[in-house]
Amino acid sequence: MKTNNLYNKIALSQNENAYGPSPKAKLAVLATVERMNRYPEYHSKTLQIKLADKLNLNAENVFVSAGLVESTDILIRNFINNDEALIIGEYSFVAYRLLAKVFNKKVRFSKMQDFRIDVNNVLTLCNDKTRMIIIDNPNNPTGTVISEKELIKILNGVPKSTLVVIDEAYIEYVNSKNYPDSLNLQKKYSNLIVMRTFSKIYGLAGLRVGYTIANKELIKEFYNYQAPFSINKLALVAAFNAIDDNN
After folding, report:
1. Section 209-237 average pLDDT
2. pLDDT at 10 > cutoff 90
3. Using CA atoms, how far apart are residues 194 and 200, in angstroms rounded to an integer?
């Protein structure tokens, strides 16, 4: 009798890294298996500091999460009041709308032109009750990007109380010269939040590790809403060691 083994199937829609994780990450995981009886760090401080060093940031500006879905969950669940709204692209990462539905949040869908975010439509939809705009850049699933000029137009055109969240899960695959330097833009725009992941380029999708970069007051809020021991020990050591493997 044949068994239906889901672990042997490849879901093309999930854009998993076909090359797998770094050898350094795999060795680190194997070396940690014997210590699985020990709890991981309460809030992933070691990886937080490592990421801050890599990105030339202060650790207080980095939040480490169990994949970007945890960060998105925290944002939509806790940062949007019932009388406020979220704007997302009509063709965007499905988790945004699913989480908004779970938490009964109001969603406005911005139109897309040639599968690209229509910046003017985003600004038309935005008002003083718009708490958050989430843009995946590159866009998932269409692969299109918005330029730095377009992102600045959005940042200049929305209320300062509106959080502009840029999901850069695929940033390492971008070769566009006009792609935004979002971390540099954060120096001017305190309402800009950037999310990145270890799932794609680092091949750690099964371990669930992501990180968010924002002003220190917002990062404090993220950690206030995160459950303790959110990221398991194997995921943390894999991510920590994958960062240093440039091959």
Report:
1. 97
2. no
3. 16
